[in-house]
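STRUCTURE:
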């Protein structure tokens, strides 16, 4: 059985202003033959101290098969002044493997703070989907001046 894709097309402009027309484009392209499911590997990625000055964490997505496209990110965060804040730059992976593993590391702030790893994942196999944002368990890490 095939599904029909319907795409909205917005087009048209004049010298006096924008005129929008809404059209429909029909494609007889069949939908993906099988369904792929993905989920976070929960309870992993708790940040740890790789040195006196750095923290490292990771996120992991497990899928039932390879994806066509994917965007998975990991970001170390620390809890300071009542808010979770990004620490360093996030790392993005475009891996489409069954298991997607993304590491991040960042410099620790001087003093003691709770750290966690934040993960986001968008995938595509036929339809585009997103997993809810993932937050690893937290860990209290200290950096001396």
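SEQUENCE:
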């Amino acid at each position: 059985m095939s599904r029909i894709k319907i795409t909205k097309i917005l087009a048209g402009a004049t010298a006096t202003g924008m005129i929008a027309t809404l059209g429909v484009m029909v494609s007889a392209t069949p939908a993906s033959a099988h369904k792929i499911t993905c989920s976070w590997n929960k309870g992993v990625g708790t940040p740890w101290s790789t040195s006196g000055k750095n923290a490292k964490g990771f996120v992991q997505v497990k899928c039932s098969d390879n994806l066509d496209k994917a965007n998975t990110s990991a970001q170390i965060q620390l809890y300071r002044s009542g808010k979770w804040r990004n620490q360093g730059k996030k790392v993005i992976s475009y891996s489409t493997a069954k298991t997607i593993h993304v590491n991040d590391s960042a410099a620790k702030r001087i003093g003691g703070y709770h750290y966690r790893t934040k993960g986001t994942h968008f995938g595509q196999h036929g339809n585009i989907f997103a997993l809810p944002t993932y937050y690893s368990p937290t860990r209290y890490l200290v950096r001396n001046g």
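REMARK: The longest strand covers residues 111-125.
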